[in-house]
Specification:
The structure is a single chain. With about 300 residues, this protein is α/β, with parallel strands linked by helices. The protein folds into 2 domains: about 130 residues, Aspartate/ornithine carbamoyltransferase (Rossmann fold), CATH 3.40.50.1370; about 140 residues, Aspartate/ornithine carbamoyltransferase (Rossmann fold), CATH 3.40.50. It is built from 10 helices and 9 strands. The protein has a 5-stranded parallel beta sheet with strand order 7-6-5-8-9. The longest helix is centred in the last third of the chain and has 19 residues. The protein starts with 13 loop residues before the first helix and ends in a 16-residue tail after the last helix. The relative contact order is 0.17. The structure holds phosphoric acid mono(formamide)ester.
C-alpha cells in the first residue's frame, strides 16, 4: 500500500482531492460530534516558522478525531544539525503515524517524505501551501457552491499561496487570474494567466483573494509597486454580485486590503480560518486511511 503524502496537490488524484473536500464538509456538519477515526494515532508537528492557524487547527483536528500531537520547533531537533533527513525520517516513522511539517525548503520536505514510512503533510513551504488551498476551496464551495467555472482573482505578490492556487486551478476547473506588478511576472508559475491590470482581473470575478506583500523572512522590503493591487471597495465593485473576499491571514493591516473590505459582509476570512480545521481533519483522515483508520465504520469512504 503506497504512503499517502500531502505535499503537492498535483501529485494527488483529483478524485481523492474532491473526496477529501466532501469529507471536510461532512466533518464540519458534525463538528460537535466528530467521529473518532484517528483513535490512538499520533501526529508529529514540526515548525521552522511561526504559525497560529496551521498549528492550532492541526492540533485541534487530531484531538477532535481521537488522536494525539507532539509539537517541536526545528531548532530544537537534531535535524539540520547532527542528524540527516534520512535518519530523522526513519526515527519519526517508529514513533508517530504521520508528520505535519512547516519548513521553508520544499526539496528538503520532499526528501523527508522519500525516507519516511508514514505520511508527510506540507504545512507550508516557501513554494506551496496546499492545506491552505483546500480550506479556501472548502470556503468557496460553502459560500458560492461548486468552484468549477468560477473566476478567482488574486492580487498583489506572487508567493507560496498563489503558486498553489495556480496548481489547483486545472485540478478543480476554476479560472484564475493573477494581478501582480509587471516586475514580478517572471516569478509567476509558467502557464498561469497574469496581468498588471488589477481592475481587469477584478472584472467578473467571483472571488477576490490576496495575501500579505511581506511574507515571513521578507521584512523591510519596499511595498511601493504593490499599492495598485490593494483590494479596496473600487476593486470589489468590479466583481460579480455576491463576490467574496478571502485572505489566508495574518493580514498586514491595512496594506494588501482596506479595513472597509476586510470587515465587509463580502469578507469570509474567518470562515476561511475556521475551515483550516475541517480541511485538516479530512486531510489527516485521507493520509491515515491506510494506517488503520476505519472510515467505513464512520460511514465515509474515500475513492
Ligand atoms: N494561513 C496560515 O498558514 O496561517 P499560520 O501562518 O498562522 O499557520
Amino acid at each position: 500500500m503506497s504512503i499517502r503524502h500531502f505535499i503537492n496537490l498535483a501529485d494527488i488524484p483529483p478524485a481523492s482531492l474532491h473526496a477529501i473536500l466532501r469529507y471536510a464538509h461532512e466533518l464540519k456538519r458534525s463538528k460537535f460530534a466528530p467521529p473518532q477515526v484517528l483513535d490512538g494515532l499520533s501526529l508529529a508537528m514540526v515548525f521552522d516558522k511561526r504559525s497560529t492557524r496551521t498549528r492550532m487547527s492541526f492540533e485541534v483536528a487530531m484531538k477532535q478525531l481521537g488522536g494525539h500531537t507532539i509539537v517541536m520547533n526545528m531548532d530544537e531537533m537534531q535535524l539540520g544539525g547532527a542528524e540527516s533527513v534520512e535518519s530523522t525520517a526513519a526515527v519519526l516513522s517508529r514513533y508517530v503515524d504521520a508528520i505535519m511539517i512547516r519548513m521553508s525548503d520544499q526539496p528538503l520536505m520532499e526528501e523527508l517524505a522519500k525516507y519516511a514510512e508514514i505520511p508527510v503533510i506540507n504545512g507550508m513551504t516557501d513554494r506551496s501551501h496546499p492545506c491552505q488551498i483546500m480550506a479556501d476551496i472548502l470556503t468557496i464551495e460553502e459560500h458560492l457552491g461548486a468552484i468549477e467555472g468560477k473566476k478567482v482573482a488574486w492580487f498583489g505578490d506572487s508567493n507560496n499561496v498563489s503558486n498553489t492556487f495556480v496548481e489547483a486551478a486545472p485540478l478543480f476547473g476554476f479560472e484564475l487570474v493573477l494581478a501582480c506588478p509587471e516586475a514580478i511576472h517572471d516569478r509567476v508559475p509558467a502557464g498561469a494567466t497574469v496581468t498588471a491590470d488589477a481592475a481587469e482581473a477584478a472584472k467578473g470575478a467571483d472571488v477576490l483573494v490576496t495575501d500579505t506583500w511581506v511574507s515571513m523572512g521578507q521584512e523591510g522590503k519596499s511595498l511601493d509597486m504593490f499599492w495598485p493591487y490593494q483590494v479596496n471597495s473600487e476593486l470589489m465593485a468590479k466583481a460579480n454580485d455576491g463576490a467574496i473576499f478571502m485572505h489566508c491571514l495574518p493580514m498586514h493591516e491595512w496594506e494588501e486590503v482596506t479595513e472597509e473590505v476586510a470587515k465587509s459582509p463580502a469578507s469570509v476570512i474567518y470562515d476561511e480560518a475556521e475551515n483550516r480545521l475541517h480541511a485538516q481533519k479530512a486531510i489527516l483522515a485521507w493520509c491515515l486511511e491506510n494506517a488503520g483508520v476505519s472510515l467505513r465504520q464512520a460511514g465515509f469512504e474515500f475513492v
